[in-house]
C-alpha cells in the first residue's frame, strides 16, 4: 500500500503540472494565407504584421508566425499517403512547385557492377539469404558467415586426402591459403568496381605474363624481383653492367630544421618574387603613349568638325570672299580692269 500511495502521489503531481501547461492547438487562423510547397517542405506565411507592435516584440512575433507556418505544413503532410516500413512512417512527397537552384549537380546513378550486368543478361534474381543457418555439428543456429559461423570447413577435425593430392601436404593450410586467395580476389573486385564508378584507373594484378615482353616490362620485372627479398633489395647482388632502374621510385628529401640561413633566405625571396610576378605590373610608357594617341585623335576629329562644307565655299567665292586669283577675288585694281 505504501508503494501504491507513492505512485499515486507521483501521478497527481504530473497531472497537476500538465494542467498548468497550455498546449498550442493545431488549428491555425488565416490558414489560407500560408502558401505551401510540400515538395520542398516550404511554407511561406503572408499574414500582415503590425509594424508598431513588431518593433517592440519582434522575436515573439517571428516565433509565432514560424510556428503557425510549420503547423500548417505538418497538417498538410499528414494528409498525404503514408506507409510504414521497418517501424517508421514514410510520406511520399509531391513534385516541388518552387524552383530552387542547386549548389552542385544532380548525383549520377551508380553504374552497375560486372556481376549485376551478367545477372541482368542471364536473368538471375538476387535472393536474400537468411543470416542464421543450422549447424549440424553443434546442433544449433549459427551465422552463415563471419565469426563462429556454421559449417566452418577450417574447423573440421578430420580432412580426407584426395587421391590426386600429395599425401604429405597439409590440407588445413591448403584450405586457409585458398580462403585468403578468395578474400584477396573479392577485395580486388571491389576496388575495381569503385575505380570504374569514379572513372579512375582500374587497379591491376601487377606484372602479368605476356607473349612478347617489352624492354620496360623486363626492367620493371627486374626491379620487382630485386625488392622481393626481406631486405627490400638492400643486399641483393647486382649484375656487372646493370643500370639503375627507373621504376624504383623517388625518395622524399626533407631539409634539416637547423641549417644555412642564407639558403633559407634565398628560397623565401624567390617565393616572394614568384608571388609578386602574379600581380599585374603597369607599363607607364605604354600608358602615356596611349593617352597621347587618344588626344591626337580627339583633336583631329575636332578639326574635321570645324571645317565648312563644300557648298558654303562656292557661295563665298561668288560673293567676293574667296582667295586671290579666283572669280570675285583679288584686289580693287584687278577688279576694275576686268570690268573695263
TrEMBL record:
InterPro entries in alphabetical order: Ribosom_reg (IPR007023)
The entry's keywords: Nucleus, Ribosome biogenesis
An example Gene Ontology CC term for this record: nucleolus
Biased composition annotated in UniProt, kind: Basic and acidic residues: 292-303
Pfam families hit by this protein: RRS1
GO biological process: endonucleolytic cleavage in ITS1 to separate SSU-rRNA from 5.8S rRNA and LSU-rRNA from tricistronic rRNA transcript (SSU-rRNA, 5.8S rRNA, LSU-rRNA); ribosomal large subunit biogenesis
Keyword Nucleus: yes
Main location: nucleus
Main function: Involved in ribosomal large subunit assembly.
Family membership: Belongs to the RRS1 family.
Protein name: Ribosome biogenesis regulatory protein
Source organism of the structure: Plakobranchus ocellatus
Amino acid at each position: 500500500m505504501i508503494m501504491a500511495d507513492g505512485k499515486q502521489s507521483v501521478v497527481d503531481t504530473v497531472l497537476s503540472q500538465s494542467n498548468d501547461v497550455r498546449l498550442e492547438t493545431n488549428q491555425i487562423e488565416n490558414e489560407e494565407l500560408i502558401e505551401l510547397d510540400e515538395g520542398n517542405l516550404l511554407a511561406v506565411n503572408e499574414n500582415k504584421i503590425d509594424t508598431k507592435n513588431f518593433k517592440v516584440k519582434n522575436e515573439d512575433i517571428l516565433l509565432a508566425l514560424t510556428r503557425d507556418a510549420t503547423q500548417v505544413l505538418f497538417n498538410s503532410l499528414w494528409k498525404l499517403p503514408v506507409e510504414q516500413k521497418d517501424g517508421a512512417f514514410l510520406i511520399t512527397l509531391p513534385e516541388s512547385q518552387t524552383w530552387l537552384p542547386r549548389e552542385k549537380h544532380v548525383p549520377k546513378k551508380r553504374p552497375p557492377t560486372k556481376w549485376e550486368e551478367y545477372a541482368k543478361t542471364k536473368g538471375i534474381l538476387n535472393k536474400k539469404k537468411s543470416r542464421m543457418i543450422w549447424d549440424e555439428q553443434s546442433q544449433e543456429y549459427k551465422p552463415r558467415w563471419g565469426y563462429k559461423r556454421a559449417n566452418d570447413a577450417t574447423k573440421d577435425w578430420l580432412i580426407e586426402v584426395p587421391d590426386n593430392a600429395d599425401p604429405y601436404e597439409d590440407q588445413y593450410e591448403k584450405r586457409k591459403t585458398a580462403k585468403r586467395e578468395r578474400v584477396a580476389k573479392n577485395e580486388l573486385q571491389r576496388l575495381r568496381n569503385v575505380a570504374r564508378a569514379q572513372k579512375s584507373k582500374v587497379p591491376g594484378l601487377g606484372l602479368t605474363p605476356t607473349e612478347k615482353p617489352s624492354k620496360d616490362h623486363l626492367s620493371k620485372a627486374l626491379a620487382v624481383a630485386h625488392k622481393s627479398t626481406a631486405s627490400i633489395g638492400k643486399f641483393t647482388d647486382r649484375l656487372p653492367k646493370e643500370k639503375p632502374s627507373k621504376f624504383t621510385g623517388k625518395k622524399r628529401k626533407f631539409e634539416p630544421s637547423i641549417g644555412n640561413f642564407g639558403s633559407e633566405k634565398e628560397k623565401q625571396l624567390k617565393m616572394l618574387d614568384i608571388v609578386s610576378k602574379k600581380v599585374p605590373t603597369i607599363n607607364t610608357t605604354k600608358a602615356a603613349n596611349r593617352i597621347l594617341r587618344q588626344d591626337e585623335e580627339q583633336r583631329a576629329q575636332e578639326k574635321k568638325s570645324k571645317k565648312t562644307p563644300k557648298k558654303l565655299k562656292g557661295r563665298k567665292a561668288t560673293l567676293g570672299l574667296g582667295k586671290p586669283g579666283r572669280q570675285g577675288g583679288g584686289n580693287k585694281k584687278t577688279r576694275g580692269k576686268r570690268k573695263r
